[in-house]
């Protein structure tokens, strides 16, 4: 992925200037390279200050609110690959997936009632279960 805007959907994109990238040393694969080169990427994006529509920002904050910092930033860390470029691309893809997940408003749930047959079957099962449990009581002797 080239530098520039991250394309989320055909209508939505995150401009390059909204992203702050920091490269840090990563643990994991890389041999001695891991001790010398900062290949892990920390991608920081401020949700509140972004150019996304307000509805998308609100859904994003509702869904990922526990991952946001006090300033309203989301930090995505990618350190799976041995190269900085691949980690950078992975972090950007992850951010795009997160925004894509909240881009579409969820479908409205239509409340439904259980059918009369379903209610009847449920009550019958409860009655049978009640009888089984009541028969587990102490046995009375005829003495």
Essential attributes:
143 residues; two-stranded antiparallel sheet; 16% strand
Polypeptide structure, described:
- The chain has 143 residues and is of the alpha+beta class.
- The protein has a domain of 98 residues: Double Stranded RNA Binding Domain, CATH 3.30.160.
- The protein has four helices and five strands; from the N terminus they run E-E-E-H-E-H-E-H-H.
- The strands form two sheets. It has a three-stranded antiparallel β-sheet with strand order 3-4-5, covered by helices on one side. It has a two-stranded antiparallel ribbon with strand order 1-2.
- Strand 1 and strand 2 form a beta hairpin.
- It is elongated and about 90 Å long.
- The protein starts with 5 loop residues before the first strand and ends in a 9-residue tail after the last helix.
- The model has no long low-confidence stretch (mean pLDDT 84).
Write the layout of secondary structure elements.
Blueprint: E1 6-7, E2 13-14, E3 19-24, H1 33-36, E4 40-46, H2 54-64, E5 73-78, H3 84-103, H4 116-134
Antiparallel strand pairs: 1-2, 3-4, 4-5
Helix pairs in contact: 2-3
């Amino acid at each position: 992925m080239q530098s520039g805007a991250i394309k989320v959907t055909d209508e939505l994109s995150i401009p390059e200037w909204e992203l702050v990238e920091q490269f840090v040393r990563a643990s994991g694969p890389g041999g001695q390279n891991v001790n010398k080169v900062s290949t892990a990427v920390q991608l920081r994006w401020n949700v509140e200050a972004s150019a996304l529509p307000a509805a998308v920002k609100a859904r994003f904050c509702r869904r990922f609110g526990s991952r946001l910092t006090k300033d309203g930033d989301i930090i995505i860390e990618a350190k799976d690959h041995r190269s900085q470029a691949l980690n950078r691309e992975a972090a950007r893809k992850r951010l795009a997936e997160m925004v894509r997940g909240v881009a579409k408003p969820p479908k409205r749930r239509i409340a439904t009632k259980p059918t009369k047959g379903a209610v009847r079957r449920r009550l019958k099962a409860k009655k049978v279960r009640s009888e089984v449990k009541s028969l587990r009581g102490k046995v009375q002797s005829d003495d």
